Amino acid sequence: MEKGWRETYKEKEFTIDTTKPSEIVVAGFEKLRLPENFKVLDLGCGNGRNSIYAATLGGLVESVDLVDLDFKKDIPEKTSGRISFHEMSVMDFDIKPDEYTAVIASRLFQYLTKSELEVLFGRIKEGLTNEGLVMVSYTASGGIFDKSDIHVLKYKHAIDEIRQTFQNNGLEIVLLEGKSGVATHVPYENPNETYGILIKRKIGA
Ligand SMILES: C[S@@+](CC[C@H](N)C(=O)[O-])C[C@H]1O[C@@H](n2cnc3c(N)ncnc32)[C@H](O)[C@@H]1O
Predict the structure, then answer these.
(1) 2 vs 76: CA distance, rounded Å
(2) 5-201: which CATH architecture?
(3) Domain edges within the chain
(4) Which DSSP string do the residues of 123-189 spell out, in sequence order?
(5) Which end of the chain has fewer beta carbons closer than 10 Å to its terminal beta carbon, N or C?
(6) How confident is the model at residue 100, as a pLDDT?
(7) Which residue's CA is the nearest one to ligand 1's atom 26?
(8) Is 21 exposed, middle or buried (0-12, 13-18, 19+ CB in 10 A)?
């Protein structure tokens, strides 16, 4: 039976053990020229590993997740003061236009439906600055949870469908890296394709 994310975290079915930022997020920030107090949106932030990284680079970060893991209490005030956490669905968050130098969606897509992704990417496109990047990692097969005892809803999104969603919403891919069998922290014998993607606004879109 499916449970919500809150119960899943509470019952410790799923924990995020790493505090390292996602590889695609590190790669994305290396490509950006970062203005003073640049703005970042971290969608489905979990334990905040990517929000914290962006804040240490000098970003002002808005972090959104269905569950408040209270990650700000464990980090220095210098960093935590740069992060605002919003406990809500990414679908309900009001994305301000032309605001964000970086929008992070790390391991989130597989928990959203196709129609949610379509709506969300329209809003993300509006929220990005002209120079900004969306930094994505996602698992096309629906994620590492199929064979483990974790009961949240997950969806399969083939990479071609994801590409189409970007295209439909005036976004273009800057970098796409694919890997397989990367879920080393949970036993999983089948290869599962995981992608790191950087996306920007199409000129004129
Ligand atoms: C696999 S974790 C990834 C966390 C983090 N982005 C990372 O890379 O470590 C997925 C996170 O997405 C959150 N999530 C799932 N659906 C969501 C939604 N509709 N709105 C906000 N957060 C959501 C979950 O609560 C969970 O913290």
Answers:
(1) 36
(2) 3-Layer(aba) Sandwich (3.40)
(3) 5-201
(4) HHHHHEEEEEEEEEEEETTS-TTTTTT---------HHHHHHHHHHTTEEEEEEEEEES--TTS---
(5) N
(6) 98
(7) 46
(8) buried
- CB 64 near ligand 1, within 6 Å: yes
Q: What is the pLDDT of residue 18?
A: 79
**Angle (nearest 5°) at CA 10 between 8 and 16:** 70
Check pocket membership of 200 for ligand 1, CB cut-off 6 A: no
Q: Phi first, then psi: what are they for 49, rounded to 5°?
A: -60, -40
Q: Which long-range contacts (CB under 8 A, 24 or more apart) does 72-76 make?
A: 72/48, 75/48
User: Which pLDDT score, from 0 to 100, does residue 45 have?
Assistant: 98
**DSSP letter assigned to residue 4:** -
Check pocket membership of 107 for ligand 1, CB cut-off 6 A: yes
State the amino acid at position 144 in one-letter form: I
Residue located nearest, by CA, to atom 27 of ligand 1: 46
- Say yes or no: CB of residue 16 within 6 Å of ligand 1: yes
For residue 153, the model assigns a pLDDT of 81
> pLDDT below 50 — which residues of the chain?
147, 181-189
**Which residue has the CA at smallest separation from atom 1 of ligand 1?**
107
118 membership: H or E segment, kind and range: helix 114-127
Predicted local distance difference test score (pLDDT) of residue 203: 83
Q: Could you identify the residue written with the tokens 């968050």?
A: 93
Residue minimizing CA distance to atom 9 of ligand 1: 46
